[in-house]
Amino acid sequence: MNHATLSILSIDPSLRATGVYYANGADRKVWVVKTGKMERVAALSKLKDACSSIAREYPADIGVVEGYAYGAHSRSMTTMGEAGGIIRVILYEHTKYLFEIAPVAWKGIAIGKEHKKTTKAQIVEYLRLVEEKYHVKFDSADIADAYMMARIVKSMIAGKWTTKTAIMVRKRVQEVFG
User: Fold this and answer.
1) Which of 14, 20, 34, 122 has the fewest Cβ atoms within 10 Å of its own Cβ atom?
2) Strand pairing of 95-101 and 8-12?
3) Domain range for residue 140?
4) What angle do CA 53, 58, 63 make, to 5 degrees?
5) pTM of the predicted model, to two decimals?
């Protein structure tokens, strides 16, 4: 199998807006699942329903989810753990290979440095840097994050990286897809 043709569904979970990126050849789709300030369980339910629907409609070979950021505050960490668990189950059920990418493994690499995205000006700057480096334009940092994770995992599979993680990913993809 030509690993360059593997389809990918990448989900960047967030407490307020989850970015979803799908790529299968030239077919590219993006979504933002907005939960805003919804009550926690209602937000998790909306996230589950939306991401399950996307995964059913756009089945992918590889599922990518961002790993946990362990420095978060306890309440938000609990909610992120719940959201991350939901996303992992969805990707496990609807893809052939689930890959969790640690934030440190992609954030600094994506645009050459880790970039804060807490103010509107920082988000605008981040999106400008993504567009400048990769020639793709997004109107959401959540979608840009999902795209960046997918792009990095695809480059690991293609052999552009020689880190232990990249070698493990290539080996596992070879085992799963031949």
Assistant:
1) 122
2) unpaired
3) 3-177
4) 95
5) 0.89
